[in-house]
Amino acid sequence: MKQERKWSYNTAQQFTLEMGLFGYEKADSRFHWRELRRRIRQYNIFTRLLWLRFKRGDSFWIKRRNSLLMITICIISIALTIHDLSIVFYGPTNATSMGILMIIWNFHSSFSMVCLFYWQRYGSIERFLQCFSESDLGVEAFRERSSSSYRRTMIRFCAFTGTILFMMIAQFFVHLLGHFFIYFAELHREMINETERIFMQGWMLNVRMIVYSILFPLDLMVIHLYVTLSKALYYEMKSFNWLLRELTLKRDLKSELQDLICKHSRLIATIKQFNNVFAIYAFLMVGSTIPTFLFSIIQIGETRLHNLNEFLSALPSLLFCIYGFYAWTVVPALLYEEINDSKSIFCMNVKVWESQDQEVRAEARTLAIHLDQPELGVSLWGFAILSKTSILTTFSVLLTFWALLTEFHMKRIEERSINDTEAMK
Prior knowledge:
This protein has helices spanning 9-19, 31-49, 60-90, 96-121, 124-135, 143-177, 182-191, 194-199, 203-245, 253-287, 289-302, 308-347, 350-353, 358-371, 388-424. With 425 residues, it is an all-alpha fold.
């Protein structure tokens, strides 16, 4: 019997060379694997442009350059976090919500960069891709839908990244030209409201724009990489359920059932490998959604809504929070639903259960037991499984805190009005 090869970083790199990732090509007949491989290669091009690709085959100086850039960004990010914490604790009260938001987004982006470094350094994505290559069912029924879904994800990534880079570069150059031209100085004062000036005074603005123009697009790339891989699992599970429905058209049910058991085992291994890569990342990102949303609402409430500039400057944080929660939860919840539907789809297949062949019935019972996987899905570091129930629970907690926050804010307004009235007397 052929001995199974123990996985290591070297075997991950060997698999990378064999399967055509990062610059090599090998013919493969399965369309889903080829499509996913092409999308991963596009994300790798983006990391190369940011000097944050850590490939073993790169030269010594490229590795040192990219490592030095990452360490520099981490040090600056920590310094900015300490600076924002000092403003939150010792600065004006109207800057508290924005300071906490900047700390959270800074943590999001820095953690995404560290995760990307770890995944590249230790071949985590390659391990997942190897599992996916073995579990690819090659079902043509969802080919067009999966390809268009990947395409939409890539378009959203390019659109968001382009918008963020344009805003960062525009603000940087307007601030730079403001030292030489009065018009740009006035324009810069209009672009930044009073609260933002507390965090972006003088050289601090240039540092933030340079660092954030790297961190924020990198954060978006990791989010869309997570969405792309979870969509790949979703469409593979959907293909497996399609095969379960098509069992009625098969003649040799016994061999088909045995084949489905093997295919489902490989799908389980792929989902488990996905959790090994993204469990901690998903836990921290989803867990920080509630405070991010609440402080975004507070920041919007603290702005003077008649001032359009201040309102628009507070709005992107809320929109990005909503989009991030959608990206981190919706596709894994759809995957969990497909996993749970497998057993019911198989149990509704009357042709299998009406068979008088005892071997067929035994294989059918084995497959039914195999499909009973209530804990299978995208895990939040083992604390919960992302499903529609978990999304509903998060929304319920979010709305509860929002109601308490609104009540507290109304009482503060009443107290201020009473104090102002007493002061006038």
